[in-house]
Amino acid sequence: MNPFQFHNPTRIMFGSGMLDQLGSAVSQYGSKVLLVYGGGSIKTTGLYDRIMRLLQQANVEVHELPGVEPNPRVSTVRKGISICREYSIPFILAVGGGSVLDAAKAIAVGVPYEGDIWDFFMRKADIHSALPLGTVLTLSATGSEMNGSAVITNWEDQLKKAIGSIHCYPAFSILDPALTYTVPRNQTVNGIVDMMSHVFEQYFSRTTNTPLQERFCESILQTVIENGEKALHNPEHEEARANLMLCGTYALNGGMISVGMENDWATHMIEHEVSAIYDIAHAEGLSVLFPNWMKYVYKERLDRFVQFAVRVWQVDPAGKSDEQIALEGIQATRDYFTRIGAPSRLSELNIDAKELDRMAKETVRFGPVGSFKALHESDVRSILEMSL
């Protein structure tokens, strides 16, 4: 286990009825707020009206930035920054899933910065401050409600990049599982894939002597597997939705489940370049790529993949070689994703080999990716070819 420091400043307000505390939570940060949300589902479900009523009761002046995209655009972020500056807004409230939350974080760090927000994503500037923000989560997936990361797309340049900073952590996040009942099936599927993929990035590590962290990861994976299909079968299954929501939060909340472990993140970096060009859902790309990344790297640490197969997927090791066990675990991952309706090949997403060289090259713009196995441009291209 490696030395580590862990600090997470986000206050989680979890459970039924927590939304009623929104007004008092927001008013602690001033009398104005920028309300950031997506394509309008919060209006059709009635959530928008509830939030507006709670904020009005708290005498909070509301300015709005609707229409955040599934792969949030830097152009939308710039609009939010302009609104905050024009009206001297001291606080941001994001209502939605990970894309909305990520856009809000980028707005928060962009307001006090004198340059262009994209500088942070291209590693031309460091983040030193941000406006405070809060979130109301409506989709269990990314963990953005309790971490300091954000991913934004520059559609004009077809680039998708990430930032991470302690300044990006939400001040508070309201997590009411009932707010996820109306999530469309495909988004529930994507959320399941996303949170499992976050755990994979931390679990498949070269660091040794981390039994507690490994079991944290395995328990989240098992809980997602058990509850994912329940939620898909019955979207208003309260226990399943609550368990998925908590899993999504814990799966990526600044490293709690993997403190002292070296993480990988190569598959996420590869997928970012796929969705930067083709504008697919992030989790759709992960569903295709991750089993193929596993097949490409499993020999780097066969023991971890054997453990994964036996503990997570209950693969029977009797009479089998370690390699057979590991490959069964990888196949079980692919089979589960397929069973819940996630794609297995890039061709299912209308992606062919035309941009493979470009995606591989951009993935390693800042150097090799991954720590489980450092991937160079040729490695990335091979994984993309396997995924066609």
TrEMBL record:
Residue ranges of the Alcohol dehydrogenase iron-type/glycerol dehydrogenase GldA domain?
9-177
The protein's matches in InterPro entries, at most eight in alphabetical order, are given as: ADH_Fe/GldA, ADH_Fe_C, ADH_Fe_CS, BDH-like
Pfam family of the protein (one): ADH_Fe_C
What PANTHER family does this protein map onto? ALCOHOL DEHYDROGENASE YQHD
Q: State the superkingdom.
A: Bacteria
Organism of this sequence: Paenibacillus vulneris
Q: What is this protein called?
A: Iron-containing alcohol dehydrogenase
Q: Output the PROSITE patterns linked to this UniProt entry.
A: ADH_IRON_1 (PS00913), ADH_IRON_2 (PS00060)
Keywords of the record, alphabetical order, are: Oxidoreductase
Q: Where is the Fe-containing alcohol dehydrogenase-like C-terminal domain?
A: 188-386
